Here is the input.
Amino acid sequence: MSEELLEYDVVVVGAGPAGSNAAYECAKNGYKVVMLEEDPVVGVPVQCGEGLSCFALQHLNIKPDEGFIAVNVSRLRVIFTNGNWMSVHDGGYELDRDKFDQFLVKRATDAGSELLTSAKVIDFDSKEKILKVTYNKKIISIKAKIVIGADGTKSNIAAWSGLLQKEQWRDKLIRAYELKMEGVDVNGFDMYFDVDIAPGGYVWVFQKGENIANVGIATTAKDTANRLDKFIEQKKIEGKVIGKTAGAIPYKGPLEKTYADGILIAGDAAGSTNPVFLGGISTAMQTGSLAGKTASESLKAGDFSEGFLSRYQKKWKKLPLADKSLLETAKIMHEFTPEMWEKMGELVGKSDVTNITALGKLRVVLKAFYPKYWSLIPVVPYMPTVMKAFSITRKWGW
Ligand SMILES: Cc1cc2nc3c(=O)[nH]c(=O)nc-3n(C[C@H](O)[C@H](O)[C@H](O)COP(=O)(O)OP(=O)(O)OC[C@H]3O[C@@H](n4cnc5c(N)ncnc54)[C@H](O)[C@@H]3O)c2cc1C
Here is the structure.
């Protein structure tokens, strides 16, 4: 093993949606930037339900491209245990996530960023900003003015920088497990909220192609695979399993601090996932992009201090994804009993709420006072918060 030292303005660790958006912004501004990705091929393996809103791309001026879109989706449904549902007709995509990540990385390299694959960061001296990286059967050292930690739920850069404690971080992650199934017909994205099957989370059935669906579960329970099998049996889903994946999703909100001297943390590494529906691609792109913009400003000013970089956190805190209604709503949902979910289903019936008005929302709240919905009375004071969180989620959270 020999050693060499490479120097960059910015090193981005991780070439997922957060990292590639960060690198793109830095490269576009003319800075010397490299993305380090431990996997040999960007985006592989896919560990994702692959659902993304149209707004997520519009917001960052990214043109939808059939090279990374598997299906155009126009309906999302939240389905309750008794079969009632609430739907919205918001535009979205079922991605080919590997192609999507590769597209974003190419966008960054086209703008001038470098990319090293099979390059795993194994240590980080957060004072000197020197990363130790295994690459080409060697250990190389890379020094940067700014390091952006976009290394997903492992969050090693944040841990090495003292921005998170691994023990506490593990408690902020929810388990996810997913099967790709052939022979399953679904129109759009269906999300099943059933506390008995998926406590703390939900089950999704996302249209992946003609007769192909991503069927997944996120739950605080440990036996994810058994629970998903139980759901599949209950719903009589008879498809052939053609793929499996698993992973973790941050579900208890962002890190308290996402910056330090010469360091920024973005995407899942910073816990930026939407806690309501657990979507993290859009929020990773939003925070990655802001991290890249902030790094560029810092390089322009020649000031990489914690004080200067604190503006990154101020910026993402202003984004709707940081609104406190989201975490509050997730907490309320986690405390719902099976009976409350059932009653909530009865309350909404089978309704399309795409264009629900303020009056329509008020009617729902008032209906909760009917005697048969009395078990929902404790929730009534929180309904405006929940409604706010859902409207933010519709646009910014997936
Ligand atoms: C089963 C499952 C289903 C999901 N479904 C959806 C969905 O349908 N829609 C949605 O919006 N979100 C979904 N999510 C969440 C979404 O996948 C993440 O929020 C998103 O990938 C976050 O992007 P990121 O760039 O922050 O991190 P990642 O995409 O995880 O990228 C981090 C990258 O860093 C690399 N890396 C890590 N450590 C190192 C290191 N030491 N050195 C070099 N490279 C390193 C990793 O290899 C990886 O490529 C799902 C998650 C799971 C687990």
Remarks:
- The two ends are 43 Å apart (CA to CA).
- The pocket of flavin-adenine dinucleotide is lined by residues 13-19, 36-39, 47-52, 120-121, 150-152, 154, 156, 176, 178, 216, 245, 247, 249, 267-269, 273, 279-282, 284, 398 (CB under 6 Å).
- The domain at 173-250 is CATH 3.30.9.10 (D-Amino Acid Oxidase; Chain A, domain 2).
- The longest strand covers residues 138-149.
